[in-house]
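Standup notes, protein team

Yesterday: finished cleaning the Bradyrhizobium icense set.
Today: tRNA uridine(34) hydroxylase structure.
Blockers: none.

Input for tRNA uridine(34) hydroxylase:
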Amino acid sequence: MPLKVAAFYQFAALPDFRELREPLRSFAAGLGLKGSVLLAHEGINGTVAGGDASIDAFVGELQHGALFNGRLGNLELKFSTASEMPFRRLKIRLKKEIVTLGDTAVDPTRQVGTYVEPSDWNELIAAPDTLVIDTRNVFEVAMGTFEGALDPGIKSFGQFKEFAAQKLDPAKHKRIAMFCTGGIRCEKASAYLLAHGFDEVYHLKGGILRYLEGVPENESRWRGECFVFDERVALGHGLRQRQGNDGAHE
């Protein structure tokens, strides 16, 4: 039986994130889950794998359970499958940020770009006045990206600030559309650009994974595969696992 994989995140105020670590680890371990979860004052970000019932119970606790007390009701969530366990162990980590931009003043809960549904993405990025930016790292971009997207050439997301300062201009780039694997990096990137004078900023809701899940392959503007940070390495349309993965990527 294939395993179920849940990728999730939400920006939410979690001032008690340190106290949440052990109860969350204990709950996930009790369900036999493996994977990685990041907790910070700004929210949660993670990917875990296990049996169907265990994953459903874990997601239910995040969204509706007493542990988070309703604070994760808007959890961005995507499911996929794996033929074998894609993680070696369970890790619950405490971080300054759930995705590291290096600017703690950026708060996606206060200001964020316009979400674009996967069904509307093709039309947006085909418009000649739209600058399409892939906010991922260079090795991720090399595996696949959208037609015509700008590669910032960054080795880590924290370098996005320098890229924006050097290459982007609010007076010149009137409409920007960004995308990333699951949507989380774009939320921070869009909040950052809005805070620095860019007026019209869009980002792909649910990221590449949601697009590959819902947009038919014959209508897709995606080329290549989408890198994922587990032993499956990459996913294609329909979130199908690439065959022959044999490395550990975290």
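Follow-up from PR in the comments: Residues 243-250 have pLDDT under 50 and may be disordered.
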